[in-house]
Amino acid sequence: MLRVLEFPIAAILLLISLPIQLMVALILYMQLGSPIIFLQIRAGKDGRSLVVYKFRTMTDDRDADGQLLPDDRRQTSLTRLIRRLRSDELPQLWLIVRGSMSLVGPRPLLPSTLKSFGELGRIRNSVPPGLTGWAQVSGNTRLTNDEKLALDLWYVTHRSFSLDLRIMLETLLVPLRGEVRDPDRLEMAREWAQQRFGSAIEGRS
Question: Is the pLDDT of residue 125 over 70?
């Protein structure tokens, strides 16, 4: 999406979401205490380091060996709802206003995950990371990393204003319908990626 359009949209969304963010922050403080913001280094455009922040929705509960418990055991009913509604991602609107992220694009990954993709990772991150993306409206947490990669690569090559609008609209439906794998999109992305990248993508399947 063009920056001249993206900036005002992100700024308006940020202003509208401020009361929601304040409410989420209060709920999380009462449920989990401080800090309420979670910071993490991710890979941005062209692999450059990007500090991504979101509302913290998990406790630091650990087992007898000191290992963090599984994600679903470190959430409360309210924090689980916050994640389902994607309200935990709202602080990233600040990054979009600043120009470090886009409204739509491949989600920012951990540098180690991006590195594991090799050249395909470089192509994937040739565009700014997004608050939401093609993979996020096609299954998200129900997808493997390689399935997300194929969808992200397809998006990077086919990105357009109309596609970005479609993704934004579908993102609004995700909290209502839940995350659902889209087999048709996955098959399309796999076939396209195999034709485009050949052995590089086949070696990951």
Answer: yes
